[in-house]
Amino acid sequence: MSHTTRRLPIVGLAILGLSIAACGPTTPSASPSSAAPSVAPSAPATATPAAPTATVAPSPTPSASAVAVSCDVKPQTGQLPSDRLTGVQVLGVPGSDIVEFQFSPGSLTPAGPPVGSLDVATPPFTEGASGLPVDLQGQKALQVVFRHMSLQNDAGEETFTGEREIRATDPSRSLRHVVLFDESEGQLGWYIGYDGPACVTLTREGDNVVVAIAYGPGS
Predict the structure, then answer these.
(1) Which stretches within 70-120 are classed as H helix?
(2) CA angle, residues 72, 118, 95, in degrees to nearest 5
(3) Any alpha helices (H) in 54-164, and if so which ranges?
(4) What is the spatial distance between Cα 74 and Cα 55, in angstroms, rounded to a whole number?
(5) I need a surface site. Which of 18, 56, 177, 201 has the fewest CB within 10 A?
(6) What is the Cα Rg of the chain in Å?
């Protein structure tokens, strides 16, 4: 009896040791295998869709065109630098086409205060004196008129010596045509043809009068 009582705790300890040994390695081996796959796929899954979603580039283009579409041409009138127009030139800047009218010192006895006006031109487009048709290029048209002008200098020579017709050929721009349609009785009238939506302004800059056609970004 006493001999058997001494062996029972040894057998119990051996069985307990085997159960601890079996449970010990099972716990750490399961945790790395389950933790590794759960962290790895989650990081690229959230990072990949974030990049294509942030598309900021297309937004400026529609907003700029929308501003241009909303600009209606309103009649404008202003004082001219003088009563003598000597030249005209066309300039292109980012987003705008510019028609610059150049003036020289005025005559000694002007017919009246020289004024300029800007308005929408509607067909039929004709020459002022003869009434002959003018083949104006462009989807839209402006009419710029200078009144109380001196058409000749003191020596009887023509005051305006610039181009009477300018055609624009760059398809990426808005301006298409600038043509002098009236040059009589102290008046100089110009047609300006252009394409597409735009904001048009008439301003005076020193000795020049500027018609600006703002049609796109950068204007």
Answers:
(1) none
(2) 55
(3) 60-69
(4) 36
(5) 56
(6) 41
- Total residues found in the chain within this entry: 219
Model confidence pLDDT, tens digit, residues 9-57: 333 323 323 233 333 444 344 334 334 344 344 444 444 443 333 322 3
- Tokens, residue 109: 């006895």
Pick from 101, 106, 100, 102: nearest CA to 82: 106
> What is the rounded CA–CA span in Å between residue 35 and residue 199?
62
| Identity of the residue numbered 55 | T
CB-based contacts of 179, cutoff 8 Å, min separation 6: 134, 136, 164, 165, 166, 190, 191
CB 134 within 8 A of CB 191: yes
SS3 28: helix
Phi, psi of 81 (to 5 degrees): -60, -35
Q: How far apart are the first and last CA of the chain?
A: 110
Tens-place pLDDT, residues 148-182: 999 998 888 999 999 999 999 999 999 999 999 99
Check if the beta carbon of residue 195 is closer than 8 Å to that of residue 210. Answer: no
Residue that the structure tokens 């003598």 belong to = 84
